[in-house]
Records
---
Amino acid sequence: MHADRPLRTVGHALRRFHWLVWGIALLAGMLAFGATFTRHRTYEATATLTLYEANNTSQGFDLALQSDQYLTQRFIALATSRPVLEQVCAAQRGSCDPVTLSHRIHATTPTATGQISITASASSPSVAATLADDVANELVRRNRAEVAAAVSPERTYLQQQLTSIESSINATQEQIRQIQNTPRTDAWVSNGLAPLLSRLSLLQAQYANTYTKLQDLDAVAAQRSATLSVYQPASVPSKPADPDPVRYVGVGVVGGLIAGLLLALLAERFRDRIGDGAELGEAAGCSIVLDLRGGADPSAVGPYGFLTRASLQGRQRDARTILLVAASAADRLDRVAEMLARAAAQVHHRVLIVRSSELGDGLNRLDTSAGHGTTVVVARPDVIGRNGYASQNHDRFDLTIHCALPPMADPSMAWAKPAACSAILVATRRATRFSEARRTAEQLRQVGVETAAAILLPRGSRKPRHSAKAVAEPPGDTDGTAGTDSLAADDVAVTS
């Protein structure tokens, strides 16, 4: 009860400022939909590359998976590298900048492993498809060129070895033919051919081994060159990828909902005006609250009668006074006092409304619908005091309703009357502050006046802040005798 504001929750914020949430979401959705007509159309085309890693599967699944991930990331980085984009720009007609082109090319790996998607964006659908295909083909060509460059030194070395071994074989075979053609004995020819034949056999074995290595190298190079290939060329898109009205509106609405929720929470956090009867009851510290946000019905006196009875319940048996206190100086009490008096007149017949000097002027008589013999009188305390009414005619009324400003601002000090032991607090919806209602209730509690009930007036029923009007002097003698005589009549006269 002593907190500056009542408990704030997200539910309270949504119930009170729900219009702010859906209003901002609707506005953001409309702005997003309008943005689809101002942005330039952009088309996207995608070419798909596939990785073939059959040579690594024989070494184990884990090794094949690691190799696949490594090659995928390597080719993704290579697709947007400057050498590849420069070759693509060279194949394009017109001006093409690799730096600008790098922002229009995106290489990603889809959900399926072993694939790479090359996506190109352009203002024309055909240009987008051409760019995607050019980048994919250049990536394949670049991979083959790198493989060829990687095996070129070993291939050159093996070819040189084959050439050298082949020359040695030819020289050895020539020596063998010369010995065979020499007119010598068979024993001498056999002795001369033996080392040459052994050398020729060794050279032939070396040649076969080197040739096998060269063939294996070519097989590996061909396999590595076939690691990356175009799986699906890019197709010409039929509709632009941007702007997308569905995506734009969806993002706008979601963003608007989030922004609206944040603004609603901020508005609820910094709201300091009473919005409903529950908040007024919490601020005033009472459980009986009459919420008149829909306006007061002159014929509905039942709720006012209930408040009157609740205010007098549990008091002294001769208690005939109700203190009607405004939560702030700007809250109106005249209409509430009139309705309380009309309800009370159904039982008490004669009701006196004592208005504060700041709330009204003169002594007036109200017309009631309670039947014959019922009277409601409205007077200011200074008028009653000058006529001696307070000391002489108080017993002539069954119930007295004192209208007062907050205790610290009430010049009539109605709260200081001994009979005023209970009060009804009056506040205005979305106008009276929490601190004002809580301060007024606390001030009454400090002087021994309990707030038995509260009334929440509809918004717009507050009076403008202005200085009090001058009090009109009632006719008659100033010593109080004339006023006393006129008030002593059964049918009270109207004094202005």
---
Amino acid sequence: MKLIWLIIYLSFLIWSAISPKEYFTWFLEVIPAIIGGIILAFTYKSFRLTRLVYILILLHCVVLFIGGHFTYAEVPLFDYLKETFNWQRNNYDKVGHFMQGFAPAMIAREIFVRKNIVNFPRWRNFFILCFCLAFSAFYELIEWVVSLSTGESAEAFLGTQGYVWDTQSDMAFALLGAILALLSLSFIHDKQIRNLTSHST
């Protein structure tokens, strides 16, 4: 599992770095995945996560690597979907922001459950959603600061494509991702946490 995860992660990272659309945008898009990979490497022995969460993190990283390579406004598959469904824009960035809620929700849930931070399930879910929405808002603030600092060179990073409600819809998709993750994966996540903790004791 660990070797397969690492091969997929590095393969997509290397592919993403080969002749991307724009290296500055590539760096901005993939740096969260690189930082995340480093954190996972350093915490693997001290706080090993469930297989489910590792898979979700990998999927999120792949989404970031693809967005970094093409830029979120020019992913070819979503250009095709744009023409097919008569969309006004390339909507791959919404996939990225959906994953920005979907994967972090389960990471936060694992920490909350295993560290006994919040034991009451409904309150735990509430705080997880608050965390995911705050994280999404924080990322939008980062995009704003980068845009102010670099001017036009950050346009591909922002990926608004002229959509006036892009920031709000980004956060809405992150919130939707977090909600769906909690609704669909909590049962299997609890089972994997029990198996992991029973083997570690």
---
Amino acid sequence: MKLSSAVCQRAYWDGGDFRIVNFLTKRTFSANPLVLELIRFFFSPRTIKDGMLEFGSYDPESVGQAIVELIEAGLLLEYGSAEWQQDSLVDSLWKPWLPEGAFHFLTKDVKYVEGGRSEEQMMRSVPKTPPPPFFKSIEGAESIALPSLAPAADSFYQTLYARRTHRSFSDGQISFDQISRLLGTTWGVQGYFESKRYGKLPLKTSPSGGARHPVEVYLMALKVDGLEAGIYHYQAKDHLLERISSGATSHLARQYCADQPHAGAAAALFIMTAVFARSMWKYHHSRAYRVVMLDAGHLCQTFCLTATRMGLAPFSTAAIEDSLIEKDLGIDGISESVVYVAGVGLVAGR
């Protein structure tokens, strides 16, 4: 059996402790810095015997123990195994954005901090220090008063001012037409622009870095009149839904959103994923990862405003169970990964 060092690892100092993290598995280990020589040696697939011979000047028992511990930690992988293939996939698909891209994997599947806790427990977690101020003033700078903002009668401004995050909903269905409007207005293609350098580029209602539009959306229909409960992919090119499964329940919606109760009460969830290669193809530097996140934010604001204009109750959340969602969507979490979830329901009291 040959072993190969995991590519998805980073080393750092934490005070006086040397640590190694596998950013794909999110497991962190304390180690002696000398172990880096062992890891470096196995970046070419080699056997345990090869390792014992290479480090023959060290105590054989300590070398063998270090190799065993690195295998158990997932920092040494069996060459050709499923774990090795997944590690290699990250290396091949994310290479232009590494090492900075490790942030994406290390921040997946973070638990919702308030789920299931009492008010007393939440109050104990509030920092003792005062919060940072919400507003900034530059001391000594000249101040120039702006004209007062009179209430605008224009429907756009009324929609903008009416937008709020909702966490309670009436127990009723939204219509299939409303779902169509939300999908088409937010993620649908409004037209195309012919670029001399990059060819035919889709135009949408939200901006996208380089017009790459890396964000896909999946619909979890829970209470939609005229549409069977299930999970669907929105095919933006032709404005249609592609059924993935019929296993959509309020319990699963709540699981997807890290056990937040309001997600299970919604009529539908809109799960945004990113196909990173679309942006990486044009932008080879890791800063473009920020652009993908900005794209998702633009889309979510468009969604919330559209839902508000339609008299619906929108919300959004980044507290999500990434791996569970990706498994159910049938995506690998590497070439395509979930980045954001929005939801909608009927306004409470209506």
